[in-house]
Amino acid sequence: MDDEDYILRYPPQPSEASNNASSIQNVSVLSNHCRIRSIKAKHIYVYFVGIQNLDAKDSIQDENSKDDTALDGVSDTQLRKDVFTKAVVSNDDLKSKKLHFDGQSYAYSAKSIHKNWHSVGNQSGSEGKSEYKTTVGHMSAQDHASLPCQFQVVLRAQRRYDLELLDRYCKGDNSVPETYIQGLLYALENIIRGFDSSDFVTVENKRLSIYSALIPNDGNECELYWEYRFTLRPGRGGLLVNIIPKSVPVTSTDTVESLAYIHFKLKVSKETPREKTLEDHVGTKDWLAFELAIRNLDVSILGSNSEVVHRIVRLSKEPAGELEFDNMPLAEYLQHKYGISATKYDTKLPCAMTADGMPIPLAICAIIGKKVVGRLANWQQSKLRSLCIVNPTKRHKLFEHGAQVLANSNSTVFSTFGIEVDPELVCINAQVLEKPRLLMSKPTKIHDGSAEMKPVRLSVDGNWELKGRRVLDGRQLISWAVVVFGCSKQSLPSERIQAFIMQLVKICKELGIDVHNTGPPIKYAALSSGDIQLVMTEASQMATAATRSDMPAQLIFCILPKHNVQIYGELKRVALTLLGVQTQCIVANNVRAHNPKLLSQIALKMNVKLGGVTGELHADDAPCLAEEPTLVIASDVCHSTEAGGMSVAAVLGSTDMLARRFQGTVIQHPKGLEYIENLDVIIRQALRLFYKNTGKKPTRIVYYRDGVNDSQMRDVKKLELPAIYKGCRLIDSEYCPKVTLILARKRHTTRFIRGSHGSDASAKLGLHNCLSGTTINDVVASPVIFSFYLVAHKAQVGVTKPMYYLVLHDDNNFDPYRLKTLTYSLCYTYPIYNRPAMLPSALYYAHRLSGKGRLQLSQRFDNLPAFNKLKTKTGTKRKQEQPPPYLVPLHKRLQDTMYFM
Hints:
Layout (H helix, E strand, L loop, with lengths): L3 H4 L17 E15 L3 E11 L23 H13 L2 H4 L4 E2 L4 E4 L8 E4 L5 E14 L7 E15 H8 L7 H16 L16 E3 L11 E12 L2 E12 L6 H9 L20 H10 L3 E4 L8 E10 L4 E2 L2 E2 H9 L11 E5 L4 E3 L3 E3 L10 H11 L3 H16 L4 H6 L1 E14 L4 E9 L5 E9 L16 E2 L2 E6 L8 H17 L3 E2 L6 E4 L6 H14 L9 E6 L4 H15 L2 E6 H6 L2 H14 L6 E2 L5 H4 L3 E10 L7 E8 L7 E8 L9 H16 L5 E7 L3 H22 L6 E8 L6 E3 L19 E3 L10 E5 L11 E8 L5 H11 L14 H12 L16 E3 L5 E3 L22
Parallel strand pairs: 21-23, 22-24, 22-25, 25-26, 28-31, 31-32
Antiparallel strand pairs: 1-10, 1-18, 1-33, 2-4, 2-7, 3-4, 5-6, 6-7, 8-9, 9-10, 11-12, 11-17, 12-15, 13-14, 15-16, 18-34, 19-20, 19-27, 28-29, 29-30, 32-36, 34-35, 35-36, 37-38
């Protein structure tokens, strides 16, 4: 088990025959990938590019220095490209080599260009890297626009990649190092992204990427364009291009027009009658805030040759169509002076009034320099997001168009490397797994007229109704209290809170959760994090006093005026580490609304925190768990912004045979650390708790790991898998259960769309989201590692995002079908959803606990650097120096509970 070769060996992709089962429905789906037909170049040569301004005083460096940063004195991307292009054109040695420069640090070529280079030795006399130096004639530097400068361009040979190895890797040869493939793919991506295409759309004089106005206005006044980003991934049998469309506003983000466009040119929905037209915005607080944001900005006139700088002093009260300048209408003046027609701007919007008295329409105001204008209002963000959501049919058109643009490109970059792209999207064979069954309770009448609770099978078909069913294990809530933070009795009277509590109690009883005290004490408190400990202590005492048995407080129901991380974090810290009481938080507006769906979710969360169970999988649908004692473990690492950017790791282990309940452990990590330290001690604790609750030692461990990318995958397996074996040996030196390590990845850009006629996925009309339970492990999956995509949930809007699972280690030799079924079944056990979740419940818990783990701190949230910024006398801000916070153990009353729900 300690053999490093065995640890680092990945399970191979199973054959197609092993994926077939009688209960699987075979379908075909379309993906947002297209194939690369061929790459004629045999090698890719990578060169480091250093560009130095010889006329700058601080650019004089020792010629013998081999530090790459010493050769990189020019930072502006466009200037680097211009200098490099001139260096290539003006030198015969480089002119015929057709180098592609990414504008940052590297240039790529299909043929070696360093045959005539001299080899530069280092100080020790050994041979160094081949390099080529050339000096570019006088050009204008960005920082010295009126002072032409001389630049020196240095090319150093970095690496040569063999494309034959990539072809072998795609055909399943796992002898090719992964780091080699990652570097090769990085080089190819930079080459593909740099091609020239006639399908560029120039927006505000900028050509950032490929744009295409495929989606028309559809009645929206905000016209959206779609920016394509292309990434490469090795698929089963060949290299694939991942097509990623991203919606962007029609204007760039460094002009005043874009700010006005996003803020005010979005068509307002009918639900907000106070903002019916653009004219209605004039004089409102939105326009006033916008005026304050752009005041004193220096702008120029976009689309003109004038270099005159204007200073904005205010917004005009009249729209552009009613303004005059220099004794003529503004539109006529702009046409005569700068050749700018009125079609370039919206005459209904106001203008920016400048210090010299000239009004400039917002659409042609270009900010000199960049400035961030405040965040959008909530309704503006919601409206912009709604415009970006398209149905599967339109999304398929975007994928298809991106493939066509890439395949039909006549770029010199493509011809240099001999890249040919297939214009058709790949069609993939997929399988739809059978949906699992859940066990929940339902009242059943017996012969004497009374009723008893019996578990019933619930055949799941997407979403299911909770009405008429009860949770499998409903707990009692006896001692509890309500605390209202930051809301007065006038804004949120106690009668309103009592009505909300009565509705909540009613739903709890319908779900089988017994609430004894239907009138808990209510306490109003000021919104101050410094008094939270005192307030929560008093609320806990009030809850105990309200019960006859002096039972300690089980739960404190907290009502907050709005989402506030500082207050929320402090009350959670006090409750979890000092008082040992469960909490349930809710925003005041939701108390006033009485949403039945929200009340059901709150009731289910309260029951889980108290130790109850919503439902469990039927044993026949979880054979991997039912056959042998199996411990399910999940972990995740969260890199937070509070406390100077600490990292928090969460590890959870199941405490019963069917993975219904979990116990979690939180660890504070050094900043940016991805692998989990002291995992062996946590595994030992999880094994002991499993044995305590079930009386059996696990013979199998299924470990789900979240949040690991390709570059970290090998290191995480190398460090964490031996830690699991070590944790087992801490129980008994001879104890060695079989371990299966599954990496779950949600941060990817792969999408799947199915056709309307079952297997006819090539139909262009009536495209839909994939069915729940769809699995794909062909074409787009890893060619050398057992991996698969799983669509467990159903998207409410847009296109469903699948989860990507990589089986990095499998001592149990699970059948692929059974392992997929286990993962899919666990998506149905998240206790507050009446539908399948995107992730297995264990991973959802780990994700929540790692995000909320930072709440278990040794100091108040007021003292964290992210929240405590002191102003000096000069008005500048500095962070108060604090000792690094660390996580404190959970209160002993909560250690075995699912407090993280």
